[in-house]
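I have a small job for you when you get a moment. Can you supply me with one protein entry, sequence and fold together? It will help me judge whether the discrete encoding reads sensibly. Write everything out right here, beneath this request:
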Amino acid sequence: MGIADEELTRFTELLDTADAGPSAPDVDPVERARRRRRRLRAGITTAVAALVLMGLAGGYAAYALTTPVALPAAVTRTPQPTAGAPVSLAMPAGASAVQVSGGTDFLGADGLTAASGAPGPLPMASITKLVTALVVLDAHPLSGPDDAGPVLTFSKADHDLYDQYYVRGATIAAMPTGSTMSLHDALELMLVVSASNYADAVSTWAFGSRSAFVRATDAWLDRNGLGGITVVEPTGIDPRNTATAADLITLGALAMGNETIAQIVGMSTLAVPGFTGSNTNTLLGTDGVRGIKTGTLEGSNLLYSSLLDVGIGEPLTITGAVLGGQDRDNVNSDVRALLGSIRAGFHEVPLARRGEVYGSYTTPWGAEARMVVATDARVLTWSDTPITAQMTTSPLTTGRAGEKVGTITWTAGARTASTDLVLDADIAMPDDWWRLTHPLELDGPLAGRG
């Protein structure tokens, strides 16, 4: 509805009087009324426009202050782990072989085997006595380390062996005619101090003659797949008693699998009444060595077993053989070097340092924070086992310094290591002024879609 003509006229006259003032020139009353009406309509239009604009401003402010902001942009750096140094096994001089089992997380189910030097058979000397003991126990088994076994009575022929081996420079121990000894104690003298006359006497007692012993030994070697070992007599004094280092590894495993022999070869000194003597294997107790047998002719030989602690929670079972070494001291030194190199093959590989940067978050409103490693990370590996890394990160709008935003997981064989990624600074929400002045950077319908 419009304003009544008389009221409009009166109102416009007042406006005209106020506008014109006392000095305003005379104007036709009709024209003056027309002008007043135009002014009035313009004022009303302006007022209405102002009201509309005020309404729009309020709606925009509500939009700008409540619309979600865009997520911070993340930039990451892919971890590039470096494997450890490859192991370098210090294989002994001469013909040697080693087999390592255990530590399946590192070495796998098959373990580790290595060999060096001539692969063919070489004289094994007194390691032969280990074959003799195994063959005798195969025919006359003992129930365990505490079983003394049958009693042997030594004859004049057995006593005469003392002189026969003495003149050949072999190791011997007293064996008076008519003396008696348990089989267990006789095996001690054979394997701990390496008495050749006892090896000969025991093998004859077990099989009746040397030739019968050799036949039984041939059959036993064949049954156990030891085609690389040849035995022509029970002591090893004959250089025709030969073996390959590889087959000695198998022999060593068989010996340590026999409780009686494993107990005897681990003795540092004899426990036989009336006898004294130390084990010829002077590595016993060093680097986990627990046996097995030495042998010396022109060269020095050693068949050994070790439970080697390498810092992985369980010892490795190591069986090794050396044939044709320079002398016992050199062989011992070489074996210790090999065991040391196996231990050194297990090493902790550094993966990440606390505070190391692996990415960052940036926001349209200028807040920034970096993704940093929360704690040092390292992994124990064997040799140059490949290491892979996987990183995951979380989207976020805001965050506090120290808040977890991701994880890095490294994998080396069957083992893993992880560390968290955290923010090194706060990411706060934008203030109201930024929201009001950046409508295109909000995550609403006005946002740019690029």
In short: The mean pLDDT is 89.
